[in-house]
Amino acid sequence: MAEKFVQEMMAAYGTNPKDIVAAIGPSIGKCCFQVDDPVVNLFRKQIAFAEDIIFDDPTEEGKYKIDLWETNRRLLAEMGVENIEISGLCTMCDTERFYSHRKMRENRGVMAGVMTLL
Ligand SMILES: [Zn+2]
After folding, report:
1. Per-residue confidence at 2, pLDDT binned at 50, 70, 90?
2. In terms of pLDDT, which residue wins out, 96 or 11?
C-alpha cells in the first residue's frame, strides 16, 4: 500500500521520494499482531526481508508475530523515502484511545488517516 502510494505520487506529480514525509500512524504493533502459517507464507513470498520482520511467538505453538511498522518503514526506505515517523502506538494495546477490530470486533468505530500535498 505505502509502496503503491509512493509510485502513484512519482507518476502523477513527479514527486522525489526524498521530499516525502511519511508517518506510520497508530495501528497494530508486533506486540499484538499474531498470525499463523498462511499469513507468514504470504509475507515470505512477497517480502524480500521477511525473516527480519517475522518472529516466533513463544506463547503459542505454531504462531508468529509480524512487525508491520518495520515492514512499511523498510518498504518506504527502499523506495527512497528518508523522512519516516513511526508513532509506535499499538491500537490493540490501547483501546482507550483507539479502535481495534481484533479486540473489539463489531463493537468498534473506524479511524481515518489524513494526508495532504504541500
Ligand atoms: Zn500491542
Report:
1. confident
2. 11
Query: Are 17 and 79 in contact, with CB atoms under 8 Å apart?
Result: yes
pLDDT value of position 104: 78
Q: Distance from the CA of 15 to the center of ligand 1, in angstroms?
A: 34
Candidates 16, 22, 115; CA nearest to 69 is 22
Amino acid at 64: Y
Domains in the chain, start-ordered, CATH in brackets? Answer: 2-104 (3.60.140.10)
Which residues partner with 23 through β-bridges? 85
- Distance, in Å, from the CA atom of 24 to the CA atom of 12, rounded to the nearest integer, reads 22
C-alpha 76 – ligand 1 centre gap (Å): 22
56-74: per-residue pLDDT in tens?
999 999 999 999 999 999 9
